[in-house]
Amino acid sequence: MLLKKPSTTRPTDALAPPADVRRIDTEPDARDLAHRVLTPGRRRWPVVVLTIPAGQQEPFGDPHEVKDAVGDLAEVVLMPTSDVSWAFSREMPQGTQVYGGAGRVYPLDHRWVADPARSRLRFAYSLQDRRRITDQLIHDALEAALAAGLLEPQTNPRLQQRSGAVQGVIGSRALVRLDDSSVATVWEELTVPGVALERLLVRGQRVTGVYDPVSRRLDLREALLFTDPSTASAAVAETYRIGDVVLADVAAVSDDAVSLRLLPDVVVDVGRDAVTSNANDTLRGLFTPGEIVACRIADDDPLRLRLDDVDDEETPKPAPSLLPGGPPWLCLPEPELQPPATPAARPTSPAPSPSPVPDPPPRRPTPLDMGPRGRVPVPRPVASPPMDGAPGSADGPPVIQLRNELAAERATREALAGDLAGLRGRAADLENELAHANHVIEQLQTRYRSADLARQRAVKQLRSAQGRNENALGIDAPAFLDAEDQFRFEVYSEWVRRIPPAEKASKPLADYLLGPGFLESVEQLAGISRAKIVAVVVEVLTAQVQHLAGRGVHQLRAGGAGGPYVRRADGATCWRVALQQDAPAARRLHYWRTPDGYELSRVAVHDDYRP
Under DSSP, is residue 490 helix (H, G, I), strand (E, B) or coil? Predict the structure, then answer.
């Protein structure tokens, strides 16, 4: 398909981008473009740069379709891969260049200069990728325009308030049959950033929005139900109750916490203690951004979530809709594991490539390119017969040498073109395999979490059964009349149950004393079971507490954070360990580390810093 000839005119209206695709054909124009893109205040709109691959006459993407889609919201530039793109790349920061048939959108917000991931590089390897890269650039440009505030409602006499019914959702577009039987489209980029359109609209849904008869776009943003954090938080409080199992998507994940979204503007950080009890688990290995998970509302003031006590049999409450009459904005995906598709045969043998990268601007082969390994064949010089009337041969040594160099360059380019075709094919295959692998990883993560929750439930059931057996034998009755003897008996019994036979020699109970008032504090402190206190005491005396992130063991400071460490005259240091996490007045255990072992001091609430 032949492209329309791009406009070569420079923008003349400082208030709007050029109306046509602008072509950059000279190095000065390329440097000027780089400076304009990089200099804050020199432009008022995003810039889309699409490049033509070396040796091609047209780009793999369609710049005119991009321009038709973005209109006056962005500038579209076409640039060949040659000395022109090389001049542009020299001016741009590392990781922000574009050439070799790839495309890129440069947002108005200059954070992409330090973080190139904010200006995503979109690859194309052949004309078969035209639809994909064109759609990607349109998406990125509209997303950048929305972030820059260029799509805020403006007074425009052509805009109309219109209603209709959704006919269907196809990828990032939805078709709406308006009440006058005309057709409008809803664009995903002009709704909720980062939320797929199929999570907002469903076939048959009635919608009302601002209609632009020129672009035939229907803007539904004014109809969104939750437009800021306050209204979204109120909706969560109204929809959910403490104890409800609900759906959330993963906004971000780190080593110690996973951020979950109940609504686009309601994000809750969940610590690893509320996710898994397995100290070997890493949250980055359990979650993938964008994944949808089930969790439980643990508290509502402040809002807290847990993921470690959700049974597979529990059905999550339906998530709210983001538009009136729309589908729940979150739904659990159907499990599906399929083997990776066999890559299609390609005309050339694909060469291994660590990552798909665009080809650099072409250059002439150097002597290094034609060394003993991989030598470029040079045609043997052939003497031309002398021309009639000429005193000698017209093709002297300089001409023959030039022909040889040209032949060598042609051979080199043909060889590189073949290698490049193989690399592009291999890159496309790797992209498909990576997408499938990521999908499988998400499903395996979900299965692992379900298995881990089942394991935790089995442990609880086992302990409960053990408790019932002990009750039947009368073991729950005090075994000793002396309170200290009884407590020591409970600690020893917990150690016997908890530590496997093979580990008892390496995890013995350390010597310990019960400080004055310790047993009294155990009896008087409400909101924590005696069994939990005993279990944590065993963790302290076996040194396991040092490896349990949820215990937060640390030296006690006088008066809290910032105060000096608490010490006794005999050199003992006071330590504090968490009995509870993320609870009002969370309980703590205080103990002394002495030269001879441990001395249990007292149990107290979080804000009680007395040793």
Answer: helix
